[in-house]
């Protein structure tokens, strides 16, 4: 085959290829046009009517919905901002309520303490009016509490016996105050001499005045010099005591009597009876009593020392 024929044959083959490509492109164009036509709402046979004019209304509705949502958000934000204030008010009300409850609790506790204080006060005032056994039991309990380190045998050596006391329950009909104290003394104290224990220097002075002062009693307390009190005891209890024969009562405190007993034995001398009067009904402003105070243990110690060294001694509680 000639060269010319070969070239012609190749040209024909190329043209056929281009023709096929052209047909393919044409088919694609028609397909694209049909798709575009189908995308038009008017060409769709779906039974629906499309109103393009409503697009603006839809936009307005959407904007209104957004406005409503914004209004709701603003209201929500506002309520959220106000909520802490309401919470604060509730917390304040709860706090006020709790304060009232606390106040109520405190008032209840105060009432209980007040009732307890009244009970203890009445109990203290009832002790001097008790029997020998009741008074002895009170001092036994007191001594045991004040000496927790002592054994039972050691405690027995410092206990006060019930025979050491004389009951003054018969004086229960009258108030145990300074006004009635002279009558009490004349009724129950029959011994030539008597020691009256009071809880303080001021009370010593008050008791002294209630017994006609210097005519019948002497004050032995810290306001005097210790030597002066020792000399006074020697004058009243000495052999040459005619000048002081009318002095019957030694009014003192546990502290002063302890020092006197360390410096003189005159209270143990002689065979005469000796009465010991405890000014037990008196309560100071803090509701302390001679038999229920810081010096009560010392009082018991002094009483036991006198009882061990002097015969015919009896203890009476006023």
Automatic annotation (TrEMBL):
Pfam families for the chain: CMS1
InterPro entries from the UniProt entry: Cms1
Highest taxon in the source lineage: Eukaryota
GO CC term, one of those recorded: 90S preribosome
Protein name, per record: Protein CMS1
Taxonomic lineage from the root: Eukaryota, Fungi, Dikarya, Ascomycota, Saccharomycotina
């Amino acid at each position: 085959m000639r060269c010319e024929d070969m070239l012609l044959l190749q040209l024909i083959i190329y043209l056929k290829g281009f023709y096929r490509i052209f047909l393919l492109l044409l088919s694609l164009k028609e397909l694209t046009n049909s798709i575009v036509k189908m995308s038009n709402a008017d060409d769709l046979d779906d039974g629906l009517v499309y109103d393009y004019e409503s697009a603006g209304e839809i936009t307005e509705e959407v904007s209104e919905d957004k406005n409503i949502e914004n209004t709701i958000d603003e209201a929500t934000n506002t309520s959220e901002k106000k909520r802490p204030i309401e919470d604060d008010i509730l917390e304040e009300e709860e706090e006020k309520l709790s304060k009232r409850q606390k106040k109520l609790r405190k008032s209840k506790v105060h009432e209980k303490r007040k009732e307890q204080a009244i009970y203890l006060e009445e109990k203290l005032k009832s002790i001097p009016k008790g029997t020998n056994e009741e008074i002895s039991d009170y001092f036994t309990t007191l001594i045991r509490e004040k000496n927790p380190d002592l054994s039972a045998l050691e405690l027995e050596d410092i206990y006060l016996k019930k025979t050491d006391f004389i009951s003054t329950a018969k004086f229960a009909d009258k108030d145990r105050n300074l006004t009635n104290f002279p009558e009490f003394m004349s009724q129950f104290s029959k011994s030539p001499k008597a020691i009256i224990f009071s809880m303080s220097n001021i009370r010593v002075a008050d008791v002294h005045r209630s017994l006609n002062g210097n005519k019948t009693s002497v004050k032995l307390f810290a306001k005097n010099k210790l030597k002066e009190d020792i000399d006074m005891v020697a004058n009243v209890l000495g052999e040459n005591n005619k000048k002081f024969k009318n002095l019957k009562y030694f009014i003192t405190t546990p502290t002063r009597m302890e020092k006197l007993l360390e410096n003189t034995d005159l209270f143990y001398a002689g065979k005469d009876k000796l009465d010991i009067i405890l000014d037990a009904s008196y309560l100071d402003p803090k509701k302390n009593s001679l038999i229920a105070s810081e010096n009560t243990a010392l009082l018991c110690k002094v009483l036991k020392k006198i009882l061990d060294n002097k015969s015919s001694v009896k203890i009476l509680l006023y």
